[in-house]
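Holo prediction. Input below; ligand is flavin-adenine dinucleotide.
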Amino acid sequence: MMEPTNTSDPNFYHRVVDCQWSCPAHTNVPEYLRLIGQGRYQDAYMENRSSNVFPGILGRTCDRPCEPACRRVRVDGNPVAICRLKRVAADLSGDLSERLPKSNPNKNGFKIACIGAGPASLTVANDLLPLGYEVTIFEATSKSGGLMRTNIPSFRLPESVLNFEIDAILNMGAEIRFDFPVTSLSALLNQKFDAVFVGSGAPKGKDLQLPGRNESTERIHIGIEWLQSVAFGHIDSVGERVLVIGVGNTAMDCCRTARRLGGEEVTVIARRPRQFFKASPWELDDAEEEGVDILVNYSPTEFIVKQGKLAGMRFDVLKWNDDATKSEKIDSVVIDCDDVILAIGQENAFEWIERDIGLQFNADGMPVVDPFTMESTLSGVFFGGDAAWGPKNIIWSVAHGHEAAISIHNRCQKVSLSQRPLAGMSLSSQKMGISEWSYNNDYNPSDRQKMVHVEMTRRFENLSLEVELGFTPEQTAVEVQRCLNCDIQTVFRADLCIECDACIDICPVKCLTIAEGLEDEIELRKSLTLPALNMDQPLYISAPLPQTGRIMIQDENICVHCGLCAERCPTAAWDMQKFTLQLGYAGDTRGQ
Amino acid sequence: MPSIIKPSIPLIPLAKNDLGLTIRNYEGSMSTLCAGCGHDSITAAIIRSFFEMSLPPERIAKISGIGCSSKTPTYFVSGAHGFNSVHGRMPSIATGANAANRSSIYIGISGDGDSLSIGAGQLVHAIRRNVDMVYLIENNGVYGLTKGQFSATADVGSRAKKGKANKVTPIDPALLAISLGASFVARSFSGDKEQLVPILKAAISHRGFALIDVISPCVQFNNHNGSTKSYSYVREHELKDIETSYVGEFSEITADLTQGNLTSVTLHDGSEVVFRSLPAGYDSHSRESAIAYINGAVARNEIPTGLLFIDEQAPDMHQVLETTSEALVDLSYESLCPGGGQLEKFNQSFK
Ligand SMILES: Cc1cc2nc3c(=O)[nH]c(=O)nc-3n(C[C@H](O)[C@H](O)[C@H](O)COP(=O)(O)OP(=O)(O)OC[C@H]3O[C@@H](n4cnc5c(N)ncnc54)[C@H](O)[C@@H]3O)c2cc1C
Ligand SMILES: Cc1ncc(C[n+]2csc(CCOP(=O)(O)OP(=O)(O)O)c2C)c(N)n1
Ligand code: SF4
Ligand code: SF4
Ligand code: SF4
Ligand SMILES: [Mg+2]
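Structure of the complex:
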């Protein structure tokens, strides 16, 4: 017979909260959504900040791995608009000055260097400054924020939001040296820092070496460099006809920026069919809404330069097999243009790290980094963000930053790096009375709320006009109720069950079964009240029930956390209990 | 009562029956009974049976008396016809309805109080007439709705919640029905749908009066130690050596129904009841055999369950009374109301 589920392992209930489980920083989404629903925006902001550090930035730009994972997708096809609700909390949080962490006047004497002022380094500073560390950030450019400032366009992320959240960290007393590219790691190591964190990102855009490339460089741009020049005000116009090569998120920012700088015919060129695009679907939608054309199955072969001036580009037109692994050329065409922007990928650049100081690189030229401690092979040098394993996104940089901060703290406190603060959990009953819960357990059948955008006539007025208007109060009220409160767990006590079937009969999604235990999980899954065919979601299996020795089985996959099982249970064998994951951060001594 | 109405969830892959309906289409409104009441489980078994048999909701007629049990027709098949009658009068209403419209499927829901105290005089005649209906007694040994007084099925010695023991001899509805000539008599337990659902389906397919006595614990007033109708007592004392399966008219016979020493009975509509196991020497067509078996079990403090007796050939009320073969609503005005001349002729025949 299958073993009863070990619910004392925090991972079991954590996994039920699909959004939190899939968030690299494990933000407690349902808790902050309820706080927003109660109008407690400041509390919602702080709940976010404790894990993801940049609620206002992420509420606009997060890659949101939580949304495809959201239970609501399995229930009505569309996730809760988690990311945009985060923005609501940030926009309405009011004066946060009392609640933001403060600098610690009692310095602990340890000095930490961070290379790069992107989100990874900033997170390290955020976690270490309150503990009394002295943090010095070396930044190659004249501004903080990394790609968040230099590459994410201000029509997606207003400068004021960026400044507020970065200042909240720097104001804790970080020392920042601008225009200070670190050119030698070993020189920096000689400066007697107690630890060094490398958060230098993946700052190099890939080039495309094709015939014609070296004849005219002026109107052929590398995407991330071009966006940076726009952000710093060095570029403020572009030709009327622009080709953007590549179809990832960088390409989307390039084409939309081009539309704002004078590009009339902006075309994004993709080698492969649409289902293989790297860009997030919402970024594609936003670009197309702004009149950007996307051409598929075009592979660039040549820059066409006439009289020393870029005139166009030649492409092979391809025909692909079904899984786009093989192609054949069916045509060759030339598209005229004034500018080409290359958005075909980013690379790391570690030429400033000497290869003889004990810091190992792998065959791909990437540093060897421990995925748990973030330490390189050179003791005391840590990596995080895009510098660790290549380009990812902001929320991953934050998650890396937290882990690196724990390691740096351990190192300075002479605790083994492998002793991470223990993740704990608490469970508390939400019962307020008979059939009364502290959360709104009713199912709201509304559709996902649509984000309203600035009207098209004003869209290109200026580069920094934020496109998304944010949710209205009415939209917010509905959208928070679409959340199924996955953290309010169905907690079962086998010893109390009298096998009356009330829970089985009431469950609106038929996810409960009382049955003889089966040896084989697949067989068991098929035999349930409603077969549990989503193998990604674990079953809950109870201890044997007192009267018949059968077991209670729950398929978490489709439970909507309505609490009806607990309401109909005469013995309170089912209860709805709020699960709170206690994450460990630097300075947390649980488990040590 | 639950705080919310059971929601409909769009993407849950519920199976559809031959009518294209899901099991949720056979539900009714939210139950207001106590959490854990056996009656709610019986409701769920009824929903499942109707769904699996693909019965059109509009062909179902639900009739009940008064009691917690008699409230339950509200909780299944909202699309069916229903009549919630006076206390104990469900058998007469059902008889009348069936006389007028024989094309509906009648399910009468009653309690041990409704059927065996105030309604005993009604029940016995519906049995005698072999009215074509399913008659369910949701038997909890108490008057649940009026807060737990002993009913006529309380066993001698069974204790009330406050400790007082019953001293009055009980009526066994199954024995009563068999001895009065019922054509289908079964007993089951609300906590055992695997047994109850096939019995319900067979009862629906059976032509004639099908009585099912379902032990259905009252969690509020009769589920304590000392009660003989609690979940744990019934589980400990249930005698389950009659095992039956129901094979629908068009459904395939599965492998475990082709092996071993099986006996089967073909019902009026072509479906079959297969006895997978029967006690030695038991004859489910013999009233004597069934009565002896039940008495023997009761003497050993056991609760015999299963399909105890069946006479699939017995003529139902319409056959006995030689009524018209069609429901009255389906008759033309002329044949339903043949006019003054015919009435005169009819009256003359009595002279
Ligand atoms: C066009 C574009 C759009 C994007 N949009 C999104 C989005 O919407 N959402 C999202 O989550 N992610 C997005 N990303 C990815 C995201 O910006 C990065 O993953 C993230 O910023 C990485 O953070 P980081 O701290 O590792 O490094 P970075 O943000 O890259 O910061 C590194 C910093 O280090 C500095 N630096 C580099 N080398 C040195 C050196 N030797 N000495 C000193 N300083 C140095 C750089 O100047 C830079 O300021 C986008 C990326 C691009 C290119
Ligand atoms: C004529 C009449 N007499 C008495 C009552 C009070 N009464 C209501 S329900 C009930 C007994 C119901 O018992 P049972 O049929 O066993 O139903 P249960 O509630 O136990 O399911 C009684 C006596 C009544 N409603 N009407
Ligand atoms: S329904 Fe709510 S708690 Fe559940 S995964 Fe989605 S956002 Fe998270
Ligand atoms: S909370 Fe209980 S009743 Fe509601 S869906 Fe989950 S298991 Fe079913
Ligand atoms: S409702 Fe409670 S007592 Fe009844 S079967 Fe479910 S868990 Fe067990
Ligand atoms: Mg009763």
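The mean pLDDT of chain A is 96. That is the main takeaway for now.
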